[in-house]
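Continuing the batch. This is chain 6 of the set; chains 1 through 5 are on the previous pages. Same settings as before, nothing changed between runs. Recording input and output for traceability.
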Amino acid sequence: MSAQTVEPTELGRLSATGQAPVLQARGLVKTFGRVVGLDGVDLELYPGEVLAIIGDNGAGKSTLIKALTGALIPDAGEIYLDGQRVHFRIPQDARDAGIETVYQNLAVAPALDIASNMYLGREQRRAGILGSVLRMLDKRGMREQARDKISGLGIATVQNMSQSVETLSGGQRQAVAVARAAAFATRLVVLDEPTAALGVKETGQVLRVIEELRATGLPVILISHNMADVFEVADRIHIARLGRRATVVTPKTHTAAEAVAIMTGAVPPPPRSDV
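Output for chain 6:
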């Protein structure tokens, strides 16, 4: 990953409170042969906010997220992180920069316990010769830290860090994946359809975790088809259509029905406001 510093005022739009974006994309383009995935997409994510991305199938939501997190390399356009232009070549580049992503498939290891999943790929070794020479893992330390991080997010349904993930409910697994992202994210968290296929109770649990993330100051990008979820937790809503950003609205300026109408093309998008 390489970076080039750019003054925030050069990036264009500031928030209503004068804050510069934590993450900004300008003119992202990605094609797959003759298929256009992204057609000059812009995006801004500000400190301490939940930005929802909605759109019909094929609108470019997943392509946009992959381009922002290193899973895809854009054909054109620029991405800025805290005022620095970045070039993510692989997802690890984004993780190294403090961006954690929870994809829809969760990427958890069912046979491992909760603590092991929290520290998957980031295992901590014991101090001294036991860790440096014998390469023994600090399982107790990881369990204690995992418990602290999960309880800090207000997740009360996950208690035993030694419990196998395969014994957890869908909502509990989702909570573990989100907690893992929150534990290591320093810039922002990206959640791809976190409430898909969950029941009402489990959905409420995940939404509370998102609100806890925002309360800690971490901005969140939320991709969702569930308008009720979006309008419950989002501060702003980026509406994708046909590979472009149609507009950005807020739950205060538009209803869910109006957002869906813009998303599907039933009504033209309004002019961009200062959201």
